[in-house]
Write a structure and sequence with these properties.
mainly alpha; two-stranded antiparallel sheet; two-stranded antiparallel ribbon
C-alpha cells in the first residue's frame, strides 16, 4: 500500500472513528445528565427556552482524542502532547464552569496560562506574518505576545458563538475540514488526521444538538473551550507550516482570517459594542450576529446554515483573490467584508423598527383627526 493510499485510509478511519465514538457516547452522557440533573437552565439571554442537558463537550473530547490516537497509525504524535495537555486543562475548566460556575477573571487567567504553555513549551508561536502590515519575522518576544493573544482570542471567540444550535460545531466542522484539506495537500499527515478526527466528532455532536428532540444536548463551556483551543492551535500551525509541495499556497494571515471569520468578527463586534456602551467587554448580552438573525425571524438551523454558508464563500473568495491582491489587501478586504456582513442583520432590524415607529406615528395622527377630516 502506497503512503498516499495509507493516509487516505487513516483519514477515513479518523472521520468514522471520531463520529462513531461521539455518536454512541452522547446518549450515555444525556442519561447521566438527566439522572444528575446537569441541565442548562434557560435565562433571559438564552436562545433556547427549554431545559437541555449540557456536557456535550465530553463526546467531542473523547471522539477527537481516541480517533486521533487510533487513526494516526505509525505517524508520530509526540509533538501533540502539549495540545493534549492544554485541552485537558480547558476541559477541566469548562466542566467546572458547566457544573458550578467559574468567574470570568479566573477563566481568563487559566486561558492565559494555557496559552503561554502552548507557546513556550509546545512552540506554537507565530514567527512570520508574511509581510502583513509590513511585518515579516516577528522576533521571539513579539511573536510570543502575538501568539498568546491569538490563542486566547480564538478560545474565547468559539465560547462566544456557542449561542444557537449547531453554530459552534458547524463552524468548527467547516474550519477543521478546510485546514484538513490544506494540510493534506501541504504534506502534513499528522495535522491532517487531527483535523478530520475533530470534524468527525463534531459531526456526531451537530446531529444531536440540531436535530435531537428527546436526546438534544449542548456542548457547554466544556465543548466550546476545547474546540477553541484545538482550532487555535491548528490556526497557528497553519501559518507556520511550510508546504512540502511548492505548488501549495502557504498558510497566510489573510487566509486564516477568512477561515476563522465568523468567531473573529462576532467577538470583535460585540466587544466594540460593549466598550462603546461603557460596559465590560466580558459581560454577556444579545448583540451577537446569531441573536440578530433570530430577531429577524430566522430559525436556529437557518441562522446557522446561513452563517456557515457565508463563511464558506468568504474562504473561497480569499483563495481566489490572494494571489492577485496579496496578503495585505486580502486581509483588509476580508476584514471589512466581515464587519459589513456581521452588522447587516442589526441594520435590517433598525430599519424595520424605524418603519414600524413611522407607521405607528402615522396611525396616531389619523386617530387624532376629527371624524370629517379622516382619510377615506
Amino acid at each position: 500500500m502506497s503512503s498516499n493510499t495509507a493516509l487516505l485510509v487513516n483519514i477515513f478511519f479518523s472521520l468514522t472513528i471520531g463520529f462513531s465514538i461521539a455518536y454512541f457516547s452522547i446518549p450515555i452522557i444525556i442519561r447521566i445528565a438527566r439522572v444528575k440533573k446537569l441541565f442548562d437552565v434557560p435565562n433571559e439571554r438564552s436562545a433556547t427556552k427549554i431545559v437541555v442537558p449540557t456536557l456535550g463537550g465530553i463526546s467531542i473530547l473523547i471522539g477527537f482524542v481516541i480517533s486521533l490516537l487510533i487513526a494516526s497509525g505509525k505517524v508520530n504524535i509526540d509533538c501533540l502532547k502539549y495540545l493534549f495537555a492544554a485541552i485537558f486543562v480547558m476541559f477541566s475548566v469548562g466542566l467546572k464552569d458547566d457544573l458550578i460556575g467559574t468567574s470570568a477573571v479566573r477563566k481568563l487567567l487559566i486561558e492565559l496560562a494555557v496559552a503561554f504553555g502552548l507557546v513556550l513549551l509546545g512552540n506554537y508561536r507565530l514567527t512570520d506574518l508574511h509581510g502583513l502590515f509590513g511585518i515579516g519575522q516577528t522576533g521571539y518576544i513579539f511573536g510570543t505576545i502575538l501568539s498568546v493573544i491569538a490563542l486566547v482570542g480564538i478560545i474565547n471567540a468559539f465560547n462566544l458563538i456557542d449561542g444557537i444550535d449547531g453554530l459552534a460545531s458547524g463552524t468548527g466542522i467547516l474550519v477543521s475540514l478546510t485546514y484538513g484539506v490544506w494540510f493534506l495537500n501541504a504534506g502534513d499527515p499528522l495535522y491532517t488526521i487531527a483535523c478530520f478526527s475533530l470534524a468527525g466528532s463534531l459531526g456526531a455532536f451537530f446531529l444531536f444538538n440540531v436535530f435531537g428532540k428527546t436526546n438534544k444536548i449542548f456542548m457547554g463551556d466544556t465543548g466550546s473551550l476545547i474546540l477553541g483551543t484545538i482550532l487555535a492551535v491548528f490556526t497557528i500551525h497553519f501559518n507556520e507550516f511550510i508546504p512540502a509541495d511548492s505548488n501549495v499556497m502557504e498558510g497566510l494571515p489573510a487566509l486564516s482570517l477568512a477561515i476563522m471569520i465568523v468567531p473573529v468578527i462576532d467577538t470583535l463586534r460585540v466587544f466594540a459594542i460593549r466598550i462603546y456602551r461603557r460596559r465590560s467587554p466580558f459581560r454577556a448580552d444579545m448583540n451577537h450576529i446569531h441573536h440578530q438573525l433570530l430577531r429577524i425571524g430566522l430559525s436556529h438551523l437557518n441562522s446557522t446554515l446561513l452563517i456557515i454558508l457565508i463563511n464558506g464563500l468568504i474562504i473561497i473568495l480569499a483563495l481566489s483573490i490572494i494571489n492577485v491582491l496579496g496578503n495585505n489587501f486580502t486581509f483588509l478586504m476580508i476584514l471589512g467584508l466581515g464587519f459589513f456582513l456581521g452588522n447587516l442583520p442589526f441594520e435590517i432590524i433598525k430599519y424595520r423598527e424605524k418603519r414600524s415607529a413611522t407607521a405607528g406615528e402615522s396611525e396616531n395622527s389619523r386617530d387624532h383627526l376629527l371624524p370629517d377630516e379622516k382619510l377615506v
